[in-house]
Every structure is written in structure tokens, then in C-alpha cells.
């Protein structure tokens, strides 16, 4: 119940916080498989710079994407996001731990991030994309392996991965917007990004939350996860996508 209490508190704090830049056309989906006990999520938002105030090029955005993604843990623990309730502690092997400030519990522990630029590789070849669009190309991919923490199951040695959080910058070589085709109003696209549309994608992969316990997951535990931890993650990612939009588009556009 301690885990549920923390998740409810964090959810309340994050929902009350609205002082942030919001991403364009943010979409998300998340679920918990009762048979395997594994949780999955997928979020995507477009980086729309097709206006005169943000004359960005794709090369500029790609250049800064990796450094932006690497800040995810420290951004999450910043005071403007978690109000000081979360703290980040790096270890001596490149990983880090996220702890709460009240009891000092390690909520999640991450191994060293794996980041690389992968232009030309399709999303399907990286087994990352939920929306199988052949026109999507990964430009930058950063992966944070989850190695422990009270929110992860099962407990055990910290050198064993228990899933990962993946952040990526993708481009669509066609002019169509597959995921948003029913929501975007027809408009003449600017050539700021050429014929490519850039988007930020995030995903939880092969993660088994402790709140679900060992499989098979009961209906009660699934319900608790769906209405606590799942909502916390969705709100956090919505804000982080907004942070990426602000960092990669708005701030970069104002620099000489």
C-alpha cells in the first residue's frame, strides 16, 4: 500500500502542475498484460516548427535531441516538476537512482543510458514502434534500462534489467501523418523540415511493475495499476514531451 500511496501523491502533484510547454498532438496508450504481468506504453508528439517564429532545420533538432533525452531523470527530479519530492543520485558506473525525499526509498534504478544516432534505420528494425509505418526513420534513440527500485518487479540484483524506457526522435519521409491523420486540419506544410515530419516517441518496454506482482495479475491489481502508475507515467511523459518541444524548438529557435 505504501507504493500506491506514493503514486497517488505523485499523481496529484503532477496534475496540479500546469506551468509547462505542451507538445503538439500528444497521443498515448498504455496497458498491463494480466497473463505476463508486463506493462507497456507508447507516446508520440509532433515537433511542429512550420511557422515563421521557429525557422528550425531538421539537422539542428537532431543535433540537440540526444542531449535533451539524456536529461530525463534529472528533469523528472527537478523542483519545477516534482516539487522536491524526488531526488536523483548517480552511481559510479554511469547509472542513477530516483529516490523520494521523505523516506529515502529508491523508486526506480536505471543503468547507464544507451544513446545513439541511427539515421536510416526503420522503427520496425529496432522493435520500438507500435505504429508500424514503413516511412518512419529513427534519427536518435536513447534507452534507460530499469535495474531495480520498489516500483519494479521482481526484487533482486541491480545488474539484472527489468525493462527499459526508450526515447527517440523519428522522422516521417512522407507528407502524411499516420497517427494524426484524423485530427490534423489540412494545411500547406512549410519546407522548414523539408518533406519530413519530426516527432518525439517514448515507450516502456518489457517492464513488470511491482504493483502488479507476480503473474498472472489479478483484476484488482490491474485496476490499481491502470488508475495510478499508468496515469502518473502518462502525465510525466506528456510533460517531458513538452519539455522536448520547448528545448528542441522554442529555445533553439531563439539562439543566434
List the helices and strands and how they pair.
Blueprint lengths: L1 H15 L7 E9 L6 E8 L11 H13 L1 H5 L2 H4 L3 E5 L5 E5 L5 E5 L3 E9 L13 E13 L15 E9 L24 E11 L11 H8 L2 H26 L2
Antiparallel strand pairs: 1-2, 2-9, 3-4, 4-5, 5-7, 6-7, 7-8, 8-9
Number of helices, counting only DSSP H or I runs of 4 residues or more: 6
The secondary structure category is alpha+beta
> What sequence of helices (H) and strands (E) makes up the elements?
HEEHHHEEEEEEEHH
How much of the sequence lies in strands comes to 25-35%
Major beta sheet summary: 9 strands, antiparallel
Please bin the fraction of helical residues.
25-40%
Distance between the termini: 51 Å
Rg measurement, Å = 18 Å
The total count of strands amounts to 9
Give the mean pLDDT. 77
Report the principal-axis shape. globular
Low-confidence parts, pLDDT < 50 over ≥5 residues?
A: 122-132, 175-195
